[in-house]
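Design job #97: recover the sequence.
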C-alpha cells in the first residue's frame, strides 16, 4: 500500500481558551511528523480542529447574550491564528459545528441505533462539566471528578438517555490489542488501557437533555448527542466517510492519532475503537499519548494564569534577541522537543528556553551557518568551490542520516534532535581543527576548498534535517546558502546524501538568524540604578586624571567592528583568552583579559569593537595585534561592547 495517504490527527480542541503550550506541543508534534512524511515524498492528510458542542459553550454564550455559533466563530479565530503563526501546516481544519460533520454524526447515530448498538435506557450518575465526562459514584474521589488533571466538583444527573453498547466490545478490543501490540503507544500506557478494559466496560451514555446547542438525536429532539461521541467521529468526517468514498479508501485508517494522556485510555483507546468496530471500519494504526506539561513545576491552570501562550512568548524572545518573530516561533517548536522525551511529562521554564536558545541555536547552529558563509565570502567571494566532501564529514553525517527517520517516526524527537546536534557539533569542531584562516594564510587552496565545500554542504544537510522542526529558520538558512532548487522540492531519499551541493552556488550575504537573548538584568540592580538618592560612584583616580584629547588625536585610532572566529584559553593564564579575529581586512590574533567572564565557545561568531592599530604586544608568549573594547561591569566584570544593530565586519567606528 505504497500510495496510502499518511493520515495524522491532533485532538480537536475545546474552544473555551486560547491555545497554550500544551495544545501547541501536540499540534507541533503532529506537524513535525506531517512535514517529515512530506519530505519523504508521501502524500499527507494532517488534520486538526475544534470541538465546539460542549455544554460549557452554551453556558458561556448565555452569560454573554450571544448565539453559540457566533461565539464559537469568534473563539476559533485564536486557534486559526495560532496555528498559522506557529507554522502548523494542517491540510484540514475541522469544526464540529460544520454541516459536513453534523451529517456524519447523525447518520452514524441512526445506523448504530438501527443495528442495536445504541439503545434507550436510564442514566444515573455524576457529570463533570469542565471535563465533559460522566462518572459512576464508585469512581469519584472524595466526591469529585477522579481525573487527576481535574478533581473538580461533579453534578448528579439522572435522565433517560441513549446508550452505546460498549460492554459488548470488551473482548474484541482486548483480542485486537493482543494481536496488534504496536497500536497503543507508548508501551507503558498500553498497559493502562489493557487493565482499564479488563476491569470491565459498561455501556456508555452518549446523549444528554438538549441544552440549546449540539447535534440533536435523530427523531428525538429532546436530546443532543454527547460531545465526546460527536467529537471522536471528526476523524472519519475529515477522511471523507459517507461523503467521498474514494478519498476515504485512500485515507482511512488513520496512521496516527496524537494526544496527551488525559484523553487516551477512556476515549481514544477504548470508546473510539469500539465505535469503529461497530461501524465495521478498520482501527487506527497507531494511537500515541504524550505526557503533560507543567509550567515552573505547576499544573497549567486558567485560575493561576500560568498558561504559556506560544505567540506571546515568541514575541518576547524576538524583541529581546532581535531575532525575527518567525525564527523565535521556530525556536520554541525546537525547544519543546529538545529536552523532554516526548511521551513523558515535562516542565516548561522560560529560563531553560533562553539557555537552549543561546546555546543550541545562537551558538551552535547560528554561528556555524554565520561563520561558514562569512569565511566562504572571504576566501571564495561567496561562491562554493568545486571539491569533494571530506570523508571525515561524510562519516560524521552518517548517524544523523541513518537514525533520523526512525527517531522521528518513532516520535523520539529528543533523539532526533540529538542526532542533528551531534552533526552540528562535528561541523563546528571541524572548523576549529581545520582552521580555514590558517589554510588561507598558507595558500593551501585545495585543502581550503575541501573544507569550505564540506562545511556548506553539511549545512545544507542540517537545514533539511531541521526543517520539520524549524521550517522558517531552515528556509532562511537555505536562502543564505543561495540554493537554486526550492527547499520544498527536496526529498529525503534524493537530497540527504553528502556531496550534492552544486559547485558554483553563490551564497547570499550572511546574516545572523538566531541572535542571542541577553539576560534581563537582575531586578535588584535595576532598582538601585533607578534610585535618585544613590550617589554616583566617585571616579577612580585614573579616570579623573585622563587628559583631554583633540578630535585629531581621536581620529588616529583605527576602531572597527570585528568578528571573533575562534577563541581558546591560554594555558596557565586563567584571565586570558586568545582570540582569532576577522577585522574585515585581515584575520589576526588578539589577547583579551576576559576569561573569567566569557566561555570561549560563547564568543565565536560575536561581533566586537576592536582597536586595530594598537602597537602589537606579546602577552604570555602570544602576540596580541589589537585590543577589544569592554565596559567595566558594576560587579567588576568585563562587558563586551558590540554594535547595537548588526553591521558588516570591518565597519569603521566614528
Ligand atoms: N475536545 C477534547 C478532545 C476531543 S478529540 C476527539 C479535548 N480538548 S482539550 O482542549 O481539552 O484538549 C486536550 C488536549 O490538549 C490534550 O490531549 C493535549 O493534546 C493538549 N493539552 C492540554 N493541556 C496540556 C498540557 N498541560 N500538556 C500537554 N498537552 C496538553 O480534550
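Job complete. Output follows.
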Amino acid at each position: 500500500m505504497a500510495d496510502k495517504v499518511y493520515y495524522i490527527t491532533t485532538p480537536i480542541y475545546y474552544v473555551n481558551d486560547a491555545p497554550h503550550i500544551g495544545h501547541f506541543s501536540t499540534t507541533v508534534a503532529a506537524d513535525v511528523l506531517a512535514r517529515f512524511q512530506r519530505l519523504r515524498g508521501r502524500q499527507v492528510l494532517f488534520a486538526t480542529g475544534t470541538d465546539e458542542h460542549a455544554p460549557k459553550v452554551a453556558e458561556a454564550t448565555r452569560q454573554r447574550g450571544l448565539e453559540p455559533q457566533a461565539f464559537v466563530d469568534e473563539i476559533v479565530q485564536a486557534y486559526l491564528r495560532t496555528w498559522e503563526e506557529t507554522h502548523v501546516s494542517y491540510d484540514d481544519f475541522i469544526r464540529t459545528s460544520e454541516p459536513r460533520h453534523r451529517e456524519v454524526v447523525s447518520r452514524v447515530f441512526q445506523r448504530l441505533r438501527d443495528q442495536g448498538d445504541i439503545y434507550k435506557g436510564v442514566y444515573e450518575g455524576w457529570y463533570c462539566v469542565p471535563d465533559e465526562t460522566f462518572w459512576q459514584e464508585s469512581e469519584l474521589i472524595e466526591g469529585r471528578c477522579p481525573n487527576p488533571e481535574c478533581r473538580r466538583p461533579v453534578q448528579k444527573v439522572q435522565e433517560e438517555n441513549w446508550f452505546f453498547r460498549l460492554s459488548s466490545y470488551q473482548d474484541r478490543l482486548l483480542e485486537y490489542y493482543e494481536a496488534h501490540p504496536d497500536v497503543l503507544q507508548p508501551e507503558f500506557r498500553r498497559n493502562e488501557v489493557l487493565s482499564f478494559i479488563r476491569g470491565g466496560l459498561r455501556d456508555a451514555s452518549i446523549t444528554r437533555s438538549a441544552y440549546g446547542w449540539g447535534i440533536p438525536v435523530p427523531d428525538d429532539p429532546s436530546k443532543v448527542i454527547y460531545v465526546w461521541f460527536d467529537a471522536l467521529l471528526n476523524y472519519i468526517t475529515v477522511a471523507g466517510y459517507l461523503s467521498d468514498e474514494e478519498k476515504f479508501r485512500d485515507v482511512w485508517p488513520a496512521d496516527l492519532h496524537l494526544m496527551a494522556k488525559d484523553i487516551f485510555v477512556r476515549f481514544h483507546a477504548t470508546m473510539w475503537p469500539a465505535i469503529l468496530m461497530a461501524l465495521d471500519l478498520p482501527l487506527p494504526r497507531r494511537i500515541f499519548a504524550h505526557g503533560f506539561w507543567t509550567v515552573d513545576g505547576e499544573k497549567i491552570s486558567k485560575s493561576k494564569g500560568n498558561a504559556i501562550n506560544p505567540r506571546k512568548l515568541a514575541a518576547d524572545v524576538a524583541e529581546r534577541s532581535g531575532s525575527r518573530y518567525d525564527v523565535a516561533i521556530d525556536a520554541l517548536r525546537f525547544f519543546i522537543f529538545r529536552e523532554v522525551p516526548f511521551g513523558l511529562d515535562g516542565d516548561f521554564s522560560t529560563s531553560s528556553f533562553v539557555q537552549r536558545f543561546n546555546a543550541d541555536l545562537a551558538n551552535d547552529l547560528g554561528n556555524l551557518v554565520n561563520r561558514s558563509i562569512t569565511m566562504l565570502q572571504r576566501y571564495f567571494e561567496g561562491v562554493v568551490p568545486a571539491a569533494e566532501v571530506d570523508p571525515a564529514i561524510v562519516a560524521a553525517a552518517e548517524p544523523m542520516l541513518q537514525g533520523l527517520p526512525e527517531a522521528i517516526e518513532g516520535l523520539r524527537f529528543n533523539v532526533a534532535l540529538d542526532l542533528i546536534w551531534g552533526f552540528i557539533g562535528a561541523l563546528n569542531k571541524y572548523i576549529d581543527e581545520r582552521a580555514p584562516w590558517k589554510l588561507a594564510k598558507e595558500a593551501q587552496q585545495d585543502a581550503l576548498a575541501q573544507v569550505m565545500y564540506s562545511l556548506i554542504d553539511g549545512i545544507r544537510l542540517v537545514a533539511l534535517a531541521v526543517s520539520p522542526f524549524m521550517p522558517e529558520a531552515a528556509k532562511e538558512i537555505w536562502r543564505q546558502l543561495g540554493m537554486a532548487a526550492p527547499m520544498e522540492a527536496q526529498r529525503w531519499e534524493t537530497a540527504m546524501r553528502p556531496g550534492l551541493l552544486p559547485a558554483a552556488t553563490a551564497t547570499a550575504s550572511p546574516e545572523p538568524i538566531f541572535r542571542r537573548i541577553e539576560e534581563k538584568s537582575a531586578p535588584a540592580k535595576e532598582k538601585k540604578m533607578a534610585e535618585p538618592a544613590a550617589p554616583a560612584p566617585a571616579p577612580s583616580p585614573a579616570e579623573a586624571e585622563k587628559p583631554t584629547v583633540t578630535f585629531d588625536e581621536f581620529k588616529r585610532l583605527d576602531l572597527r567592528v570585528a568578528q571573533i572566529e575562534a577563541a581558546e584559553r591560554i594555558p596557565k593564564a586563567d584571565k586570558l583568552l586568545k582570540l582569532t579575529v576577522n577585522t574585515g581586512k585581515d584575520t589576526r590574533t588578539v589577547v583579551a583579559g576576559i576569561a573569567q567572564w566569557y566561555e570561549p565557545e560563547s564568543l565565536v561568531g560575536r561581533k566586537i569593537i576592536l582597536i586595530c592599530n594598537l602597537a602589537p604586544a606579546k602577552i604570555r608568549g602570544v602576540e596580541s595585534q589589537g585590543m577589544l573594547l569592554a565596559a567595566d561591569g558594576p560587579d567588576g566584570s568585563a562587558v563586551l561592547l558590540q554594535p547595537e544593530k548588526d553591521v558588516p565586519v570591518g565597519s569603521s567606528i566614528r
